[in-house]
Design brief:
Length: about 260
């Protein structure tokens, strides 16, 4: 007669079967996850620009490191539409790796690529991008790129960017409202008192658009420098109700210390 299995043998067999089932499910999950990535990788070989762009967008939307790595070839695509789209799609590989890939794109000949790369660098929150973004803010010929650089600097919140942001607000040649507003907002996000004087000057300049002055008032509240109180008090009595309200709220922030 066959020997009956011991309890320990039965437990081992049960464990082994369960382990094998786990491995099978794990492998199936990996294949299921990698399948969509491989599908989009294949689409990157298409001769159609729109299909390649769509593939890059789908890879970026996965928000997975493997998907972002699959999107890396898009940074060197012949089409600026694809290169610019790839900028944000690769950031899931992490700031340490993505920033070196993105920085060269700030010098791309196409405005869309430079602009999208600036936005992407802001999303990395990496201070290693501060210098290059500051240079774009001060010297790029396109308003959209300068504005994107200012927004990115605000997201990074590196005090080293204050000099470039202040220069942007002070230089008379900067006329674009979007750029001025973005620079004022970024100073508030950085929260350095080194930006106070420039923001006070903007707030008191009635020749500037109201929305730029409003952002200056809001940023002064975020910075919390008490020397801004007189300018905020004056602005709180402005005929512009939105500016008046923002200045009043900022004053309250100052009082809370």
């Amino acid at each position: 007669m066959p020997r009956k299995g011991t309890k320990s043998t039965k437990r081992f067999n049960s464990f082994f079967c369960a382990f094998c089932a786990f491995l099978w499910l794990a492998c199936f999950a990996v294949v299921a996850q990698d399948g969509p990535i491989q599908k989009q990788q294949q689409r990157l070989n298409s001769s159609d620009v729109e299909e390649r762009r769509d593939a890059i967008m789908r890879l970026g939307a996965m928000r997975r490191e493997a998907a972002s790595r699959a999107a890396l070839p898009g940074l060197k695509d012949v089409s600026p539409l694809v290169r610019g789209t790839a900028a944000k799609a690769i950031i899931s590989i992490g700031a340490e790796e993505s920033v070196p890939y993105l920085l060269p794109l700030l010098d791309d000949k196409d405005e869309f690529v430079r602009r999208e790369s600036a936005y992407a660098l802001g999303l990395t929150h990496s201070r290693s991008a501060t210098a290059a973004l500051s240079e774009r803010l001060l010297n790029d010929k396109e308003d959209g790129v300068r504005g994107a650089a200012a927004i990115a600097l605000g997201h990074i919140a590196d005090e080293a960017a204050v000099v470039a942001l202040v220069q942007t607000l002070e230089q008379k040649r900067e006329k674009n409202v979007f750029v001025l507003r973005a620079a004022a907002t970024a100073l508030g996000q950085i929260k350095s008192r080194a930006g106070t004087a420039a923001l006070v000057a903007v707030l008191g300049n009635e020749k500037l658009p109201s929305d730029v002055r409003r952002e200056a008032a809001r940023s002064l509240g975020l910075i919390g420098d008490p020397t801004a109180a007189p300018a905020l008090k004056a602005a709180s009595m402005s005929e512009d109700p939105y500016l008046s309200r923002i200045a009043h709220e900022s004053l309250k922030q100052l009082s809370r210390g």
